[in-house]
Amino acid sequence: MTDTLPTLAILGGTGAEGSGLGFRWAHAGYPVILGSRSAERAQEGAAELNKLLGRDLVRGMDNLSAAKEAQIVIVTVPYSAQKPTISDVASALDGKILVDVTVPLVPPKVNRVQLPAEGSAVEAIQHMLGAGVKVVSAFQNVSAHHLKDLSHTVECDVLVAGDDIPSREIVIELANAVGLRGIHAGPLCNSVVAEALTSVLISINQRYKIPGAGIRITGLPGQD
Amino acid sequence: MTDTLPTLAILGGTGAEGSGLGFRWAHAGYPVILGSRSAERAQEGAAELNKLLGRDLVRGMDNLSAAKEAQIVIVTVPYSAQKPTISDVASALDGKILVDVTVPLVPPKVNRVQLPAEGSAVEAIQHMLGAGVKVVSAFQNVSAHHLKDLSHTVECDVLVAGDDIPSREIVIELANAVGLRGIHAGPLCNSVVAEALTSVLISINQRYKIPGAGIRITGLPGQD
User: Which of A61, A90, A172, B27 could form a disulfide with A182 if both were Cys (CB 3.0 to 4.6 A apart)?
Assistant: First the structure.
């Protein structure tokens, strides 16, 4: 990474997860663009974040314009919108990192793991985009619940899976920049864990009546 | 559970994971039988544990005899031995709880998630045994590394998945009895997470040069 922080486009950036992460990244100094199918909705979402931030740090654009302006493109859309959203911006992704946050939940039973037949949802995206785009899987397990409350430390590790290790390292920096802890989780196929884990965390939230279960990896150096 | 602790049979009980768990359960007061294809090997494994325990608490038998004597049968064999081992003892399982610890690793790339086509490995077992056996998935993510060192707290939560909730609760007690923390992870299909997570933990062990990464669920009541 250079001294200048990369510009982040968050597609589906008006949803709870996307706007929550965008809020934290903007607060950490990253240039953030919220993307949405509608430029107007994206601008409204950006205005809300800027109000919370007390400064005009976030912009809003349609998804394609957002992807064009960014060095790193983050996708936080529902599973059903994953392929069409990424397909629409594919022309703007060459040579960039695409961070896929998609969780393949199948409503209504979102507390049951129901992975796609091909394994992980993100591998289908890497296959669709080809090797010119560095696809990295991350952030699926971060509950949106407390992201916009800066007084609240979000207690969750981020499993970062991807076939290109330098790209993984950049995404780990993105996690660390907002007080999460990014961890190398191996090749892209290992995304299965993060994609499936969200259903288990939802199941735990329901059974134990808590708002946002997360995970920590134990046994790492420097850990209590 | 009654006041008398149930007898546990650990099939594949001479391996690192099975004997480590058996050691901890015996130390916690459970009657433990190690099972193996060879009764002699099982008896040797039991003798080793009894030496460590300083008391004759553990017995060794062939897998079928062990399963017959136990109320709860725990399977800790390599993936390739899972179906034949369980098939061999199926006649002794009716009305019992079968705890499947199997991780569907595919050597040599055990740090890559390579789940069976049907999803989780444990669902195939439930299907094979039918509804008369309560199949519960647990303990896949507990590193064997420190199990036989009682001075070492094993820092790992145990995701417990199963379709029968009372059986899950009994397995959660088994985890809690040895200082782990059992957590309801939802229906049996959610076992995918624990089965796949082991490859991610192996990948983390390799990259961060640590002996036994584990997981903690965050956000639960009573947690720091």
Answer: A172
- A16 closest CA partner among A120, A148, A126: A148
Q: Do B190 and A208 touch (CB under 8 A)?
A: no
Q: Which of A200, A205, A219 sits opposite B210 (nearest CB)?
A: A219
| DSSP letter, residue A189 | G
| Cα–Cα dist B182/A105, whole Å | 24
pTM recorded for the entire structure: 0.94
User: Which residue of chain A comes nearest to B198, CA vs CA?
Assistant: A193
Contacts of B51 (CB under 8 A, 6+ apart): none
CB under 8 Å to A40, separation ≥6 — which residues?
none
Section B63-90 average pLDDT: 98
On the question of pLDDT at A104 being above 80, the answer is yes
State residue A97's pLDDT score: 98
Indicate the angle between helix axes A16-27 and A39-53, nearest 10 degrees: 50
Residues in chain B with CB shorter than 8 Å from the CB of A163 are none
CA distance A179 to B166: 38
Predicted pLDDT at B133:
98
Q: Do B112 and A184 touch (CB under 8 A)?
A: no
Each residue's pLDDT tens digit, A111-156: 999 999 888 999 999 999 999 999 999 999 998 888 999 998 888 9
The predicted structure's pLDDT at residue A224: 47
The H or E element that residue B32 is part of is: strand B32-36
Query: What is the model's pLDDT at position A223?
Result: 64
Residues of A at the B interface, defined by Cβ within 8 angstroms: 111-115, 119, 143, 155-156, 159, 161, 183-187, 189-190, 192-193, 196-197, 199-201, 203-205, 207-208, 210-221
CB atoms within 10 A of CB A101: 26
Give the Cβ contact number of residue A84 at 10 Å: 10
* Cβ neighbours, 10 Å, residue A195: 32
CA B99, CA B22: separation in Å to the nearest integer?
A: 13
B8/B6 Cα distance (integer angstroms): 6
Is A165 in contact with B206 (CB distance < 8 Å)?
no
Quick: pLDDT tens for B160-219: 999 999 999 999 999 999 999 999 999 999 999 999 999 999 999 999 999 889 999 999
Q: Which helix (H) or strand (E) holds B46?
A: helix B39-53
Nearest in space to B68 (alpha carbons), one of B76, B77, B59: B59
